[in-house]
Amino acid sequence: MSKIQWTLDNLDCAHCASKIEDKIQKIEDIEKATVNFMTKTLTLTFKEDKNLDKIEEQIKDIVQKLEPHVIVKKKIGKTHCKTLSKQISCCSGHHHEHHIHDHCDCHHEHHEEHGHDQCDVPHDHHEEHRHSHEDGDTKKTILKLLLGGVIFSIGLMGEFKGNVELGIFLGAYIIVGGEVIVRALKNIMRGQVFDENFLMTIATFGAFATREFPEGVAVMLFYQVGELFQSIAVNKSRKSITSLMDIRPDFANVKRNGELIKVSPEEVLVNEMIVVKPGEKVPLDGVIAQGKSMVDTSALTGESMPRHVEEGETVLSGFINQRGVICIKVSKEFGESTVSKILELVENASSRKAKAENFITKFAKYYTPAVVIIAAMLAIIPPIFIEGATVVEWLYRASIFLVISCPCALVISIPLGFFGGIGTASKYGILIKGSNYLEALNNVETVIFDKTGTLTQGIFHVTQIDATNGFHKDEVLKYAAYAESYSNHPIAVSIIKEYKDEIYKDKINDYEEISGYGIVVSVEGKKILVGNNKLMDHKKIKFKEIDCVGTILYIAIDEVYAGSIVIEDTLKEDAIEGIQALKDHQVRNIVMLTGDNKKIANKVANELKVHEVYAELLPHEKVEKLENIDHQKTCGRNIVFVGDGINDAPVLARADIGIAMGGLGSDAAIEAADVVIMTDEPSKIATAIKISKRTKRIVIQNIIFALGVKALVLGLGAFGIATMWEAVFADVGVSVIAILNSMRILKFKK
Ligand code: ADP
Ligand code: MG
Fold first, then answer.
1. Å from CA of 445 to ligand 1 middle
2. What is the pTM of this model?
3. Among 107, 420, 541, 563, which is least packed by CB within 10 angstroms?
4. 141-153 tens-digit pLDDT
């Protein structure tokens, strides 16, 4: 299976987006096609060996038919100036219909793309240029509508008669709605009959035909104003959501041949030196080679307190340098750096659709044809069968139906709501990999936590070392440290830190880490075992169990028990409140699973007040426990597993929602989980649930509101009570309100 992405430039109609998706999905050989209206991307998965050129041609064909002004392009990721010039030509070609969308978007990408090139145009200039251009287009539309409005008012007040009256209103009508008519004609030529433009044209022509000139103009005016508001609202929201996620660095200052040059982050190689000045974004992951500073990590973590960093420490792309100049040795190329990973993840998030979104897409598919059919029946049947019913009257009622036949309000506002929810979560350092997960978080019954590194800090302190059988305490610690030196388990990291001497890795052979048991290794030719009581039992070592509360490591050297190390971990600062917050959000069952011993597990469980605790579990037993809990869950509710990504990937994958903690710097966690908490705070799980609930509430409000108003106006229209005015409101007015409502999610505060 492979995956490609295309950009659909100028995509400005959500309903069309789903039509395009539907058609592309039907192309042979395509496994799955998703169009993301928000990011304007088309994502395809298909079998490896397929003929790409043919597929691309088919896609372009489909798009050309449905939305001729949309431009299909290979997704730009790592190309440079060439794409830039293409972008410019796209932006200067004033051949599009929805000016506001087109221009803004071209410039937006243009501006984004700017970061990837070497053409040194100052940044601000772009911003300015973009805004003035876009404002200009909006202004043009507003002026046109104003002019039309003024002529319309003159017509209303002047009480003109006959052809003069017709002339004035017709003039106003053409100024206001001319482009609608042109679009309708163009679409008909392409075989797309029942689109909004056509329906508005018919409806308003109808008004003119019955000599209701003012109504014809007014309805068109109202419709156009609604469309204008709608596109402004969609654009604003797209922008504010994408700016939430705007963590892409624009350039890197790299040291080459003793000189400092400005290049695109993609051009920097691993092990090169980059310099980051105060106020600049760290462009690539690396280790500080020189200098110290405070960095603002909030773009990645949502944490507002700046963090102190100095020589030898790792910094991640996306941090903002606040004070000193730092020199960084790059450790990962741009594509592998944290920023790229996160961006990719968030950009792809809306291709995993929520149930509510799928419902709306399905609904839209049947809704429009159904309304159009009813409209046709309304126009034909009553005049034939009902005495005194005039064709004109029923045509009018039918055209009301046609105006309401677009499900736009829902098709735009629902994905926007989820996208906004995902964006808001990312502001808090919570990365959600799909709208489906955001929706699922709304209905959590059980949260299962891993202990070490998830609820506890995973930073152990040695509290006691015992040695026996002629070994010395120092030897016990030394061999433990040597054994642990290849492991990245929190226990290992802590032991190595406790052992202050240097570790000569060339003395270590045959290293084997057994998840949930410990480590088997040969050091200086001696066979070393370091692990828990299970490891000792398993390897048949005679040992004395230590009776104390703490995590206990037993050490055996050449099959002889040498001693033990007791280590202790502390709870994370917000663990207790984090668990309380979950209980406050209707999470019925909170469970802790751990591979550690019972005593320490119970102690931690008591402090945290979790409902159930299971200790001494091997990784596969954790999966079994989860499955047990899963069998008992209420149908339709979800189980969340929260781990730190170290040896709990199988459980993360098996849970309804796998949440990984401490995503910063841990690739494994980012890969395995459905939701990644960038900071180490358990309380963020409750925050994620809160955002999910808020999002869901907004989505439901929109569904009820939009469907309610539409149903009401359809009903009133059929009985001749509602006029074209209400119909246009039920169409664009409802859209605007629903979009604005969706944007409320961005105002979320913890
Ligand atoms: P948790 O479920 O608390 O996250 P793990 O499943 O990671 O714990 O580990 C369970 C137990 O296995 C640990 O408490 C420890 O006794 C043992 N263990 C795992 N990895 C190591 C290691 N690298 N060194 C020593 N002991 C280990
Ligand atoms: Mg663990």
1. 28
2. 0.81
3. 541
4. 889 999 999 999 9
